Amino acid sequence: MAVSRRTILQVALAPAVLARTPAAAQDLDPTVSRVYPGPSGKLVYVPDDQGNTIHDTSHAGYRGGGVAIPTVPVRETIWPVATDNTQQIQAAIDRVSARTPDAAGFRGAVLLRAGYYRMAAPVKMQASGIVLRGEGMGDTGTILIGTGTARPGAPAGAAGGPGGPGGPTAGTLIVVGGASGATPNEETKQLITDEYVPVGSRTFRVMSARGFRAGDTVILRRIGNQDWINAVGMNGDTPASRWRPFDVEWDRVVTDVQGNTITVDAPITCAIEKRWGGGEMLKYADPGRISDVGVENLRAVSEFDPAKRTTEYGNMDRPNYVAEEYYADEDHYRNFIVFDNAKNGWVRNATALHFVNSMVGTQRGAKWITVQDCISREPISRRMGARRFTFALRGQLALVQRCQSDKGRHSFMTGQPSGSSNVFLDCGATSPFSSSEPHEQWATGNLYDNVQAPLTARFWKDINIGWAGANTVFWNCEGSFLVQKPPTAQNYSFGHLGVNAVVFNIPLQDPTRETGHLESLDRHVTPRSLYLTQLRERLGDAAVRQIATANQQA
């Protein structure tokens, strides 16, 4: 029987037509066993044998999530000068800092008009309610130029304070933070009496809750003794394989007190166990910590010496890896912006070029920071360890969303036991030289939500990072990844597109370690975003609209 040309075309076009047809019910993205939309439409959290659940991440970000970044009125305006601009920018910040805050707690914004601002020294934002604002993050906007090479100082990526142990101005162009962070009141300390407080819990019992009430700011402390160190296998004979006992602390607010049972605003991200030393709670005050500070709508560039070049690379799949020559100067500005001793801050609509280490970092004293719509390009340093931590979160409850990192290493990184409850949402790394990951020893409860980058949550062999992170969640991410289960905890991958293997740092990998919890490999799951779904369920649709774009809500 002859077949008409029309029939042939109809058959050939059928797949394209079907691709545009709304998916049938059986073609919807799958759900996963640990958290999924229930019959009511609300998420159902399924605990493991010890009661641990996927925790609520929605408390991350400015003002605890779901609050739009404000537009603060301009109080000072300056224009660039041909010589160094550091002094005039700092003077303008200081004048606004001396103003009386308005009813909302804001003193005002310093507006830097479009142009080039050469800066031989850092500027400091040390008062609440101030904003440093430019007139654009592009080539014709406000451009800060960190001048001067031959800047020896703290090792790139070093911890201890913004820019490293050299102090809060060591290698950082804009330092945001107060004189001190949370100061615990040891006299208020109460022991937690529960044998086991699971991951995801906000409620626990103490010896006596008599001195606590809703609104108190508290530190929850999870003790990790030597027995716990032994249990996680970090009790080796060399410094590279040995940890000393340490605590994990969460900065929280009491929301309810019933008898000796206390509820706090955000969940814990690592189980508190009596057999490992238990836990305790105590009040704190933070009069030295600043609030409601932001940097926005500008670009920063770090000058470097183009004569310093190399062909050596680190962290690749084989030793002595040599490839094309690249700029490798490291004696220039290391970081663009670092927050410490600050809460409720933000960076938005900013670009960074040529910094050795980070575009934005948070330190231990930072909480409730949002970084959004930012881009890091062409960092200048050697492509090896302790460099190019583009978005480096060592504080708590930060949200980094819609950000891009080009040629970074650990582009989206959380570090140290203080780096907990942070969220990376709808971010991407292009041409990375290593994986994004929890890093620097037992960072807990961090969410990578729709992140396109190589990702790991795993054990580091023969280096005292050891178990870099625990109770990490990768949700609908894309790219190669490596997820392993730490003793006494878990790491998760849900809806990941990619293979469970990465080529970076292979000599430091241990493939004998137990695989973490993987579900729906190579197919995304419902809901699209865990963070936004949890935020909607906690605060409603309006809160999501305050912080998310239309594409994110689709």
Q: Any key phrases for this structure?
A:
554 residues, mainly beta, disordered N terminus, seven-stranded parallel beta sheet, 6 helices, 40 strands, 16-stranded parallel beta sheet
Explain what the structure shows.
- The chain is mainly beta and 554 residues long.
- It is built from 6 helices and 40 strands.
- The protein has a 16-stranded parallel β-sheet that branches. The protein has a 7-stranded parallel β-sheet with strand order 6-9-22-24-26-29-32.
- Helix 2 links the parallel strand 3 and strand 4.
- The protein is globular, with a radius of gyration of 24 Å.
- The two termini are 48 Å apart.
Structural class by helix and strand composition: mainly beta
Distance between the termini: 48 Å
Percentage of β-strand residues? 25-35%
For the CA atoms, what is the radius of gyration?
24 Å
Q: Helix coverage percent of residues?
A: under 10%
How many β-strand stretches? 40
Poorly predicted parts: 1-25, 154-166
Largest sheet: 16 strands, parallel
